[in-house]
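Lab manual, section 2.4: Encoding a predicted structure.

Procedure: take the sequence of the chain (205 residues), apply the prediction step described in section 2.3, and record the output as structure tokens. A sample record is shown.
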Amino acid sequence: MGKCDGRCTLMVICSLQLVAALQRQVFDFLGYQWAPILANFLHIMAVILGMFGTVQFRSRYLIFYAVWLVLWVGWNSFIICFYLQVGHLSQDRDFLMTFNTSFHRSWWMEHGPGCLVTPVLGSRIAPDDHHVITVSGCLLDYQYIEVLSSALQILLALFGFVYACYVSKVFQDDEDSFDFIGGFDSYGYQPPQKSSHLQLQPLYT
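Recorded output:
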């Protein structure tokens, strides 16, 4: 029963990770954030692999999934530091998120809760095919929305890492307790021995 509970819990965590990653992928696509898009895609693939390993009792897949979660925590920690401008990180370095292919920023910058977008007409600092805007009245700045999203990803990743290690250990213990290759030999099964001597019994009629 404990093993089933661990597997079911891990499946729930993976499902939540998948939903959160897909939601994040949509908004990153809308904001042309190519680096997060690539990272989200790899994360979705790793989560699906972890779900497959949980269902099919594949401990190696769960180990790979757990290793990826460590990298995923590191990436989201970088995102948090980036939007909070920790150290020498600055949001003005757009190439970190867009690979220097566009001037777009987070989709939440213009579409956050309560945000009022006002275009600045006749601005000379706007490059070709772009316009300058001012954003005001936001109930929550886009930086903090991105930080909360990354914090949620880290929280789910930590739970997923713990349960992936636990379920993987259970699978490995089960494999050690029963040798599928050796069959019944691992349990000391001995086939019945054929006797070379036959005992004759008299027949009475």
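Check your result against the sample. The helical segments are 2-30, 34-55, 59-83, 95-98, 108-111, 142-177.
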